[in-house]
Amino acid sequence: MRLNYIFAGEDIVMAVVQKGEYLLPKNILIIGVSYFFLSGMCFPCGIFRTTTGLFKMAKYSMLTASALNIILSIVFGLKMGLFGIILASLVSRLVTNMWYEPFLLYRKFFEEKVYKYYLNQILRTLLVVALIVAMIPLINMITIEHLYLRIFVKSIVCCSITAAVLLITFFRTDEFKFLLERTVGSAMKLIKEKMN
Q1: Of 10 and 128, which is predicted with more confidence?
Q2: What is the pLDDT of residue 68?
Q3: What is residue 2's DSSP assignment?
Q4: pTM greater than the 0.85 cutoff
Q5: How far apart are CA 109 and CA 103, in angstroms?
Q6: 162 vs 156: CA distance, rounded Å
Q7: 176 vs 26, 170, 179, 181, CA distance in Å?
Q8: DSSP state of 22
Q9: Mean pLDDT confidence for 179-190
């Protein structure tokens, strides 16, 4: 869904505020979506950190990330404006939480090497980048005049292609099978309850 912000974000802003002067440059949109993507990648480790009690051990990395974010936001913001401020948040997270929290979790809780996690994250990021690059020409062909119809078509195309690629890529994994089993099981249970 976040990929849709890259391709339909400007149209959505136009639909909401009806003025082009509120549109952000494409590079700011892309760096903002990248930051949200990175946040989503870090979220599972954050959940594990909290539930396993590793928060105390990771608190200094969060303080370091915050201090680094403030310093880099000032430096990058003065040189690059809003783009630099968002980039500073991305960089500070990459050089602290993104690598340290998984390292800590795998070392202290799972008692395994963390390289498989890092490799998976890199491969998944490359998949998303490849998906974006492959979709650019396709989305650029959508030149419908009606704004709301254009947003709808771009969203459907973007979400359909993303879902298809993710399905093809991950349908054999244990995680996908687990989620499918839970989703279908919950849906079937809900249907049975409604029918009784």
Answers
A1: 128
A2: 94
A3: H
A4: no
A5: 10
A6: 10
A7: 33, 6, 5, 8
A8: G
A9: 82
